[in-house]
Amino acid sequence: MDYRHVLDELEQACADFQAPATRVAAERQLVQFGKRADAIAAGKYALAHSGVPTAKFFALRGIKEAVVAGYAVLGPGNAIALRDELLQLALASGRSLDSFVLDSLCWVVAVITKRAWADTPDEQRRTFTRALCADIVHHNTPCIGMIVASHLIDEVSGGSRCSEFHLPWEFHYACKAGFENAHMPLLFEAALKVVHRQLQQSLEAQRAPPTSCRAIAYERRSALHIVDRALGWEFTSPEESKVIAASFGYSKGGAIAGGVGGRGPKAAPCGSDLDDADDTGSAIFDPEYRSRTPLFPRDWQPLLLSSDVLSMLFFAYEAALGDQMHAHFSPGSSHIALQCLIQISGIRGKAIFSPTGAKDSDTLRAEFAQVIMRNQLQMIRHVCSMDLAAEASEDMVVATTQMIRRFIETQLEERPAALAAGRQLHPLAFLVARVPETLEYFGEVSKLICMLLGAAAGVLRSDILQRIDDDFGDVDSYFVMQAFDELASAWSAVISDIREWQYLDEVAAAAVGAPQKQQSPDSTTGGADCRYVLDSFTRFLKTTACLIRSEYIQLRMLMCEVSVGAGAGDMQNEVLSAGHGLLAKDYVVYEDQLQFFALLARLDTRASLDRLYENLCSRCHALQREFSTTESDADDEPGAGYNQHTVDLLHEQAQWTVLMIAHALCDSGTSERVLIPRPILDCSSASSGLEHDLAVQCIVSMLKALEFELASPQSASAAYGSPLFVETLFWALRRIAPVYFLLDCSDYSAPSPSIVAAFGRVEDGGRGPDIVNGLLDLVQRAFDLWSSEEDVLQMCTSMLLALAQRPPVARQITSSPLFAPLMLYLTGNMGRFPEAVHGSIIEALALLACHSPPAEHEKSFSELKQLVLRGFGQATQSEDLAAPSQDARAVVQLLDGLDMMDGLLSAANFQNMSAMFALFFELHPLLERLLGMYAGGHEVTRNAIQVMESAARYLDVSSLPDDECMLRLSRCFRGLLQKYHSTNQGRIVSQVGADVGSLGETTALISTISYLVCNEMGFSPNEAHCSASRPVADDFGETEAFGVYCIHALTEPAQLVVPNVLRMHMQLLSEMVQYRTPSLMRWLPAKVWAGIMDVLLAGIDNDIYDVGQRTYEIINKLGAYVKLNGIDSAAGELRDVFGRGFRLLLAKLLRTLLFSPFDVELVESAGAALVTLALAEPEHLQSCFQGLVSQSQTEALAERLSSTLAKFNADLGSCDAVVGFLQMAGPIPDPIDSAALRQPLFEFLVNARAVLRVR
């Protein structure tokens, strides 16, 4: 054939491809080149005769496509011969080819090698690998062996860099398993030899011409790239669990790369930059790429644990730093080297540290840790000598801190085998005992932490601050603070791990009654007593903690100066939280840093609290002086002598000091009782008296500061207070007061006398009641002074809610003579406060009132009830709401009343439950009228549904005295739902995601039904075994089924698959199917069931884990009910819906399990759902199986697949779980046992996927 003509057409298409007007047609022609029957011959001719680099590039793409598509016709022998021919072409013409053409040529060699891997004899594979290794070791630029090896590693890894071969998964798996065992170590070792040779030549190259230096840099970079790929390799495992994980696992949020041509870098001519093609999709085999260092097998021990190899990689990084100075060299060499260092710093696992003939595992661990520490120490010292704040230092600073964190956290996880004093050594004790550099290493790390904080402070004082603010938002987003966060995380892990071990050690010693004796380092087997070593290490941490704390405090105080100086004021403390799209406070944004500071503070509690107490007192005294000056000058000249900048700075610094004190004094916690930390107790107990107890004095100082800030509104200084400072003080008290105020001494083995005396109960000799009374006065003053500051009032109310959760404190509050005036003040001045806090105020007062005597409680609740009724305004008095319904003031009154009603219902408990029910029954007609007047989407409707949600959530159905009351409650909810349905019938929201209000309305309605189901069912397994009477259970079933009907009738199907709505809706359907399947069958029409089937189809293989899990639960339970009880008595339309729906669910679930990347944690539940559907629709299952067999590409694959499917059918027929399931009876049968199906199901899925899943 005349290939000259073909080449001319190819070159013309390449030229047209460069012009926008002809690009589409040219691209179509270039793609068709690879589909030619003679693409290989034409491509070889183009490589030999074309002078157009892009023509050679597309010719190579055509050869690759032809080999992949026509491999069966080409044959393994011809494929290998073609590969060798192309490899020789690369070796002979590499210097004359453009870089992107050479890169593509080597890529095609790698693709052909993998495609022929299974058909190539072992000896021939090894010969090819040895040839690559020889070229890597002996050749210079361009090193063809390195480029081919790099592409071959990418192809075999199975990740997003892997090309499409349209072959079963087992082919890729077999290639990877064979390659990593016999060939990867050889390539890794060859790359290490190149790195070693380059280190030897680096000194000589410094005086050589620049081209020589660039050659060395390129070769070093290419070798490091291979090392980096090997160190990030995810190894296969012979363990069954990991084989299955590799079969189904995938990274959440990623997707398997697809499309003809596979990898992005080969989509267009480009340079041979090995870093361009980052892994952006998930891999078939590597679900969490590089989140941790891989678990290397035992065979890699001689390479990875060699001190020479480890040290050489550190030296290679130092040499790579100079590569960036060459103008013609692409940056990235030092970055690759840093990634290698991060990986080797986290080497872990039992296999790699398996004992050898001369050394046990602990010796290997100690030697490895010593080498890493020595080399990291050199890097740390080098980093400390740099200008840490300079942008040129970013890569090295951040990577070094990541390296340190990876090493420390990995060492904490690795448990040594040696025992000391009969117990396993703690990892840090092991390092201290076996690695002499340990203390020096941690000392240098602490020094680096301090220097990073100092560098951040230097940035604040420098001229680049404005540019950093513009580029990064603030200094906390600059890389220096990011590096600090890395080390703070590692340091926190060290402190927490030691504290936990010491606590467990004390508990174990107390359990056996053995006294804790500190022994000398040589008193036990292994050379060190763990307790003694850790105590010594804790003293070391205590010394370093002082320096870090001091630097952090100085930095924060300086940041306050900068923010105030820039005029940011309080807004500096409200930064945009990208995760939530809300303005978040300092105590939210900097929670991790403040927790780290608290850990440091508790290492030396007295010194820390002393520094913080002094800071707080000095700022508060300075504020008092400023305010005194203001008041003294008020009569002469307002504002004379007043310095706004000074006051703002003092408020800002005092606010940050309060944040640090609050975190140091106690931890946060909502789900369990929080106690005073042990270090705080010990420090307090060691104090000589109340006035010398720093913990007590810090809390007292905060109370005094709050009292000072909440001066009388008539005071001249009241106008100069800081609402942010007041809010922060109330936040600190919300955290501290439930822990310290009126503490229960029985919770502590040795409570502090000073804390008990200051905040304890009267019977314990404490003055806690006086503190609580004073706090109530401060609350009233806050509402009086800052009545329009929503954040201040919300935090104040939040503190009251936290105190209400502590019965002793709540009882003291309600018995205080100040509580009644406070309640009267709040309820009487509700109109002065923002509407957003009304509900919270009502909830707090109602919860607190529950702890008062019965008569007082009844009186308080009556007042709150009247306040709620007054909140509805004229709506509660007018029979005809049509007139005022659209009046803005009337709407505001209604919204306020509904908000307060919602807050009151949120305070329901066993003490006020009957009164809450009475209130709900009383306001039910009003709610029904509002739902009938305002259409969906209106604020009144949303708030009314919110009230329904709170009633369903907090009103305990089981507390109602008789069936009549229960029926009344059910019919109240059903009446509200019917009114809502009739008002909104025909109105369907079409703008999915745009109408936030409608989404909120839908989710509130879903939550209402969900809470009602769980509330009414209680601990009953289902409605057939409900504790309530049959009429009550049936009535609630009708109400809840009608709620599901409303959701589907009034919501567009596309809106139900919005992620948040879908998650909540799946939860509701799961609960309804579990508890209420007969009621659903009885009340729901076929149209709604069709909508439910569509939602279940959307839930299969959904990216949201909870949605997938609940989808398979619903299918399993619903399928069990239909299979065992049948629906023959149902209407024909309903039977058709279930038959069609089950067939669609079965087909999609089978397709998903066999072809899609799947979360391994969901395989079992999804498999059980598949089996249940298969039992319900056996004919359709066999039809799906026949379709799979008929689509098999070869007869051999069809036979294997048929055998696998036949075995699965036989296993289902003989499985005990299936037999037992089919014999069950009952109104609501239990679903099939997924655990009993594990073996046959996983065997079927793994074997079938190995044939069907292709790439």
Strand order of the largest sheet: 1-2
Bulk shape: globular
Overall pLDDT confidence = 83
Total helical elements: 53
In helices, the fraction of residues equals 55-70%
Which residue ranges are poorly predicted, with pLDDT under 50 across at least 5 consecutive positions? Answer: 239-290, 325-331, 517-528, 568-582, 989-994
* Major sheet details: 2 strands, antiparallel
Radius of gyration: 36 Å
Main location: cytoplasm
GO cellular component, one term: nuclear pore
Subcellular location: Cytoplasm; Nucleus
Protein name: Exportin-4
Structure keywords:
1255 residues, mainly alpha, two-stranded antiparallel ribbon, two-stranded antiparallel sheet, 53 helices, 68% helix, ARM-type_fold, transport, Exportin-4, protein transport, nucleus
